[in-house]
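Morning F.,

Quick status update on the modeling queue. The single chain you submitted on Monday has been processed. Sequence for confirmation:
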Amino acid sequence: MALDLYSRRVVGWAMSERMTATLVCDALRMALWRHRRPTGVIVHSDRGSQYCSAEHRRLLGEHGLRSSMSQKGDCFDNAAMGSWNHSFKVEAIHGERFGTGEMAKAAVFEYIEIYYNRLSVPAQKSIALLVTQHIVDRLLFFQHITHQRIQECLYISTRRNELGWTWGGLDAPRKGNRQD
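Structure tokens below.
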């Protein structure tokens, strides 16, 4: 599983019956493909043997990625992934019985790609930021229009005063209110 810590989205994942170096490399390849092969990215993991393997280190080197691992006995460095794993287990697979590996893979796909990345709280936060930005843009636009309209009204008011017009209360000037 590869989790983008900025967006909180799952960007790479793979499934197998065993936890191998090939499995984690497949998940990393998916993440690289989705992010159009970024370089200089820090890839953080626990100290599992699959992350220490020559295959995984070679993949990191080929793509200019930086490896980061927790210190021995320090579980806090990988808390985001631990939290995601807990949510996945509770929300997607707790109590489920899958008849085949394909059924399990379909359920994992549905959870990650349909629910989590599109509809979950982290995804909603991203959507909320986009909506908020749109609202701010619209408010700034209306603020600009309002400011422009106030300037026009001040100009008209100043011009009317220069012409000697008086205001009949808040109404527009009426005939006969002009002072000659």
